[in-house]
Structure formats: structure tokens, C-alpha cells
Amino acid sequence: MAKLSNIKLKKKINLIILSFIVPIFVLLFLSFGNFILQVNKDIDNKKKISENSVKNAIELHKTQRIIGAYTISTNPFVQEKVLELNSLEANEIEKENILAEKLNKLHRFAKVEFSWIYDKNGRIVARGHKPTEKKFSIEKDDPLFENAMMGDVVYTIDTPKKGLLFIKYAVTVDQGSTVIGV
Prior knowledge:
Shape: rod-shaped
Order of helices and strands: HHHHEEHEEEE
Low-confidence stretches: none
Mean pLDDT: 76
Number of helices: 5
């Protein structure tokens, strides 16, 4: 290897510049790698925060709606009418509009968008909204209805189409300790 004193000035300058550039590139590469790791970590943290926010929002919405449903189901007038309607035939239930009117008024107070009251046989005895908007109702063989008839507070989250989320829930209408409807 040639002695440093024998190397021309131009080559010495190039070696000096190279000795500065190589560490700069190594530091730049390490900094960029660290930056990428930090960005990925921030993305993961924000994803966790947003997932928790969505879960908390759904839980809060569900709780508020179930409280609203309890407001309706524990209303003495609603309980009395459901008990009366349990003994009527299907064609007579359609004529009985007073429960639907009360249910419609309770909607505003309970902050419930759609509601149905079923008798113990699974027949709809009242709707708290326009009858043409019945596309969201639950059927009597739906596990939601069946579990609610057993006294459970139940809910499910449905996504009928992309970007649309429905929380369907059911609470019992009780007369004392007897379930008379949902």
C-alpha cells in the first residue's frame, strides 16, 4: 500500500471527502429506518385508538338505546295495552291504534328510531313508526326475540349494506315477573 505522503493532493482531498460522506450516509440510512419504524408505530397506535373509539361509540349508543327501550317497555300504559292485546285476534290488533300512538310519542322521549311491540306469541301489536318502514323488524323465530322472551336484554349489530350499521336490541315488557311481550 502506498504511503499517504506519496498520494497526490487530489486523491487526498477525495479520501477526506469520502471519509465524511460515508458516515453521513450511514447516519441518514439509520435515521430513515428509525423514522419508518416510528411511523408504523404511530399508525398502529392510531388504529388501536380508533378501534377503541368505535367500540366505545357503539357501546354508548347501545346503552342509550336499551335505556330508551326500557323507558318504553316499563311504561304502565304500554304494559296494560300489551296485556290486553295478548288476548285479541290478529285482525283485532290492527284496529287497536292507541298503543301505536303512545309508542310514537314515547319515541321522541326515548330517542328510539324504530320500534315494535310483540305479544307473547310473536305477533306485532304496535309499531312506533310508519308501518311502511317495517323492513327492520325481527321475526318471532329470531334468536333476538326468543332470548328476549326468556327475559334477557339482547342486541345484535347488523350491517345490511356497506357503510350502514344497525344496532337491533330487544327488552321485555313485563307484568310483574311475567313476560307479556317484547
